[in-house]
Structures are given as structure tokens and as C-alpha cells.
Amino acid sequence: MPKIKDSRIMASIGLFIKREKWFRWSRVSVYWGAVYTATIAALYLLRATLRPPWRGYGGPVSRPRPLPDRTRDVVPDGGRFLTGSYTNQAGPRTYKLYIPSGYRGQALPLVVMLHGCTQTPDDFAAGTRMNGLAEEHPCFVVYPAQASAANGSKCWNWFKATDQHRGQGEPSIIAGITRQIVSTYPVDARRVYVAGLSAGGAMAAIMGMAYPDLYAAIGIHSGLACAVARDVPSALAAMQQGGAAPARQRDDGALGADSCPRVVPTIVFHGDRDTTVHPRNGDQVIAQWATIHAGGGPHTEAGTNPQVTVQRGQVPDGHAYTRAIYHHASGQAIMEQWLVHGAGHAWSGGSPSGSFTDPKGPDAAQEMIRFFYEHPQ
Questions:
Q1: Which residues is 336 bridged to in the sheet?
Q2: What are the backbone dihedrals phi and psi of residue 29, each rounded to the nearest 5 degrees, phi first?
Q3: Pairing mode, if any, of strands 307-314 and 266-271?
Q4: For 36, 77, 134, 146, which has the most beta carbons within 10 A of its beta carbon?
Q5: What is the 8-class DSSP label of residue 176?
Q6: CB count, 10 Å around CB of 14?
């Protein structure tokens, strides 16, 4: 009899344990189900972002080459590439700062470079060769690094409404890094610029809209217009077909009442075979600023549309391109749009020592530096 009693007790205990495991597993399943759903959405966005740059609408396009020694592309002889960090209420970020060999305490321009998804400051510096240009045209170059804790693919969160406002989120961090460099080194405050690729290009568009008092001009490569998405689904839609009415985004309150007191000169690069971020997005960046220009402001002519000059060219043994230059009625250029024919989702004219570059295109970094230096505040 005791054995039977013990058996019943053990059976009851076993049933209790099974029930407890089931309830625990149910709670865990709910939690991991939510995590799984969020992960699938993030991976879908990442897959769209990481589609190989040579996959286009068909036809031959540049394929990446084996990576050579990139040391000199990252840190040219005599230059210094320093690591720094910045923290505010939105969180911490690290950055790399390039100081050219010719720096002797004089005031220099500052270029802020925002990398694309999966990239790092060193990778982006190597691919764009911006540090080499800083030797030819002396300037400081800072590369903020997206934290994997903020985005698992290290994409700037351009598609989140909380990261599209002045004074909060990632824009506040990038602006904070910019101001930290300005306060630490003798930066010419009239010549501070921001540029980026892909997600970094979309964030550069936001920075130009949200901080026109800080940045004299902006460069957007394979990016999107400001505030064309508010979440992952709308980001994917914008990437695939262009955002919805980006020209109206200035008025929807996303950027703060003090945004856009002036038109920020903008240079845009985009490949016409980009299947990751549709080329239409480059058109929308230009349309957004053209609409603001037509609305008037302290540095615009109200009610006027920019005049456009179109030039066509060909890189020797490389891609053809179309360059549209938008002028004030006074003749001053305020925007440039470069459409690189045959290029995919890659930095035009970049070095094969970095990721997502197309060496056969016109040199986007060189043209951005030229455009920036033509447009101090």
C-alpha cells in the first residue's frame, strides 16, 4: 500500500511539473513569438538593404573586386585617425575623427560622414577615400558609428519617427558629436557639412532639415528624402518605390517649428540600377528642397522654381552620368543631382578597399568636397 500511495504522489507531482512547464513554455512562447516577429521584420529590411550592389534591372554592372590593403585609404601618411565618444539623453555613440597631416592649429572645415548599414567608420573611410581628400583639401572628417544595440545591422534609424526630430534621438547624437568636434578643435563654423550613404544618406537628409543652422550643405548618396517613412513597412515601401509626397514632410511637424529657415545646398548621387533604394528617391530629395525653395525664406526667392542646367559625361572606361545643376535666378547653384548610369547601390567612384563601392562611377567624394567648399554658410 505505501508503494501505491507513493506512486500516486509521484504521479501528481509529475503532472504538476508538466503543467508548470507548459505554463512557463506558454509565457516564453508569447515572448519569443513577439521577438521572432520583430526579428523577421528587421531581417527583411536588412535583406533589402544588403542586396548586392551589382544586382540591377539587368545588363552588366560593376562587381566588387577583392579587397586590397586599405591602410593608406583609411589613414594617409602623416594623418591621425582618433577614436572618440559622445553621450547625451538619447544614448552613447563612438566615432572616428581624421586629422590631416597639414593641420597646424588653423581653422579647418568639418565633414561629417554617416556610413551605411553593416559598415564601420574604417570601412566607410576606406571606400570613400574621404581622408585622402582631407589631405588634398585640408579638413577634419568625423565618422559617427552606429551602435549595434541601436540597430542590429548598424543602420541609422532614419525610418523611426523618434529619430527624425531636432533635439532628440539619433539626430541629436550626430549634432552633439558635430558640436563636440567644433568646440574641441578650431573648426570653421561656417563650413560644417554632412554626407552619407544609403541609411546614412537618409539620415544626412534629416540632419539638413533639422539642423540648417549647423550644416552649411549636405551630400546624399543612394539615400531618401527626409521623413518619408515612420516604421519598417513604410521604410520598405519607400526604398522600393519612393516615399509618399516627401515635399509635404516639412509641414507635418516632425522636425520642429524652427526647422528649415533656409534652403541647405544639397548634392545627390544615385545609381540608375539601384534595386535597394529606388532611384526615384534621389528625385524626391531634390523635389523636397525645390518645394522649400519655391516657398521662400531668408535665403530664397519666394514663388520661384530653380533653373536647371543638364550636363552629360562619361568616366573613361567607366559609367556614363547625367548631372543636373539647380540655380537661383541669380545664377548661384543650390542643388546638384548626379544620376550614374549602370550603377547599383554603391558609392560612386569609391575604392574597392571598402564595401559597397563602384570604382567605375564619377568620384562622388571629390564632387561632394568641391560642392561643399563652394557653399559656406
A1: 267, 325
A2: -65, -40
A3: unpaired
A4: 146
A5: H
A6: 10
In angstroms, the CA 284 to CA 68 distance is 36
Are the CB atoms for 110 and 137 separated by under 8 Å?
Answer: no
pLDDT, tens digit (0-9, with 9 covering 90-100), for 178-225 = 999 999 999 999 999 999 999 999 999 999 999 999 999 999 999 999
What is residue 182's predicted lDDT score, i.e. its pLDDT?
98
Which cell goes with 177?
558629436
Q: Are 372 and 217 in contact (CB under 8 A)?
A: yes
Question: What percent of the chain lies above the pLDDT cut of 70?
Answer: 74
Q: Which of 358, 321, 361 is nearest to 339 (CA)?
A: 321
**Interval 69-95 mean pLDDT:** 89
CA distance 31 to 148: 22
The more confident residue out of 161 and 51 is: 161
Contact 239, 199 (CB under 8 A): no
A 10 A CB-CB count for 100 gives 21
> DSSP label at 146?
-
- Residue 24 CA neighbour count, 13 Å, CB half: 6
Cβ atoms of residues 48 and 276 within 8 Å: yes
The domain spans of the chain are 1-47, 72-373
Q: What is the pLDDT of residues 26-71, one digit of tens each?
A: 444 444 444 444 444 444 454 544 444 433 333 333 333 444 456 6
pLDDT of residue 249: 47
The type of residue at 94 is T
